[in-house]
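Long-time lurker. I teach an intro course on protein structure, and each term I like to show students one example going from raw sequence to a predicted 3D structure in token notation. This year I'd like something fresh instead of my usual example. Would anyone be willing to generate the tokens for the chain below so I can use it in lecture? Attribution to the forum is fine with me.
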Amino acid sequence: MLAGCTGDAGGGVSGGDGEPWALPGHPALAGLDGQPVISPEPGEAPALVVGFEDPSCISCQRSEQGPLQKLQSDHVAAGELTFVYRGLPITYPWGRPATQALESTDAAVREAGAGRDAPAFWGLKDHYYAEREAFSVDNVHERTEAYLASETDRDAAAVVEAAREKRHDDQVSVDTDAAERADAVATPTFFLFREGEFRTTITGAQSYDVFASALEL
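-- Reply from a regular --
Happy to contribute to a lecture. Here you go:
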């Protein structure tokens, strides 16, 4: 059975040497083609982090605003690391509709022909964490629509309508099924890979050094 938010501590293209490396058959990577990615694409950078997160989870918030932010600024931009976000809404009730809204936003981005690293999805995800304490199951759709309308070029009303109607709930299920198969029972859970090799699983809000050491960054 899936638990909730944890406390503290708790086919690629080219690797670091320029040679192709294939993504391993790890359950956390199932359905990876449909996931939002902060570039490079999976397999194009030496290191890969696949994170299962819940927008309502305080430890996810701490991870996003701490070590993940530094990993992205220091290593994603340098082409050394890829980060893949997967939803696992198991903490507070508003996390499920927020995750559905993220999937609907991602679908709208793709329909418009934008890439998996388009800012609308990632900005909304960051907004959920930045304003986590202000969200509830009663206001999540309203606040999501307000953010998308003011901060992105997506059709906010259409995205939220899709989320309300759970049109992309199948994609939520792809993530939760992958989490179950990978034994991710709490959020956040991160699966770390380097050049085709699974390195380790990190659960909870850990330090930047824990990630960097495991990934040899």
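Some talking points for your students: The helical segments are 58-65, 67-76, 95-111, 119-130, 140-151, 156-164, 169-181, 208-215. DSSP finds eight helices and five strands in the chain.
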